[in-house]
Fold this protein.
Amino acid sequence: MKRIVSGNEGIFQGAIRAGASYFAGYPISPTSEILQQAAVYSEENPEFRFLQAEDEIAAAIGTISASLAGAKAFTATSGPGFTLMQEALGWGHVVEAPCVFVNSMRVGPSTGMPTQPAQSDLLQVKAGSAGDYYPIAFYPNSVEECFRLTATAFNVAEESLSPVILLADAFLSHLYEMVDLEKIDVTVVPRSKAPLGSGQRLFTGTAHDKLGNVKTNDPVVYRAWLWEVKGRHDRVAEKYPYFEYLPCKNSETLLIAFGITSRIISSLKDRFSIFRPIRIYPILEKELKEVTQSYRHIIVVEGSDGQYASWVECAICRKVMKVPCLGGGFKLKWIQSQIEECLRGVGV
């Protein structure tokens, strides 16, 4: 039956459908409702374990540790908390722990504007922790996609053996739509990694061999491990080249937007073509090259000062125009005025 569902509830229910049995978190806008739902669900379903941690560092460590113990685990936070989780995320990649980190973005830096949406944590997704690692991240733009892509994130985590990022924003978390979650079919990838205590017993962030033996002075072992991880992540990411492309006949301008900004500009589809990346990272390089080559003008509309635009420029080897929606309160009329200004600047 269809009912009113929020983005945050879509995320939580998607996790449950994917088989999640553990949540650790700390209250923070705009994801506190996910923590609240997890608390209530754990009371009604004792097999589901819940931890309200003392801070986001503990929540991240708890999530990864639960994964290593055999649970499908996840956490949810926003920018300031995601910052605190970065070292733990690096550890999660080193110990190859399949789990999901939800980051619903708000205006930063620091505490910023807690109730206003942003899309400015993309660089943290790519390289917030130390060293070389290969994250995978998705970004829905509807309540139904919040549900579907959360389940997808769990599947990708199991296949890549790594923490996977599900992005959202303050508007999307609190977006309410009529959805029938029960009728949505999702594929569920089962856990294959053996839990702590069976087989490997040491899970260390220090460089190590396949048995967990510390190898801090052996570049051969380190390179072999890194190339294996990179190859696995590349293969898994290639299975999920998710995007939406809405071509507009005779348009010479392509708008690129994702998450809530793609919803806001969707009414412009009769004048401009629109490309919406859903797999945010790794960037959809091949798809972007194919789509953008037929357009004279490319404008990236995003809730940051050009973070995704800079990735697009690297991917397609050409400059793009930018509409940075900063300070929250994304408004279609203002975005339209900025698009017009961009086009006037190139003589259109």
The chain has two domains: 3-193+205-238, 243-345. The chain has a mean pLDDT of 96.
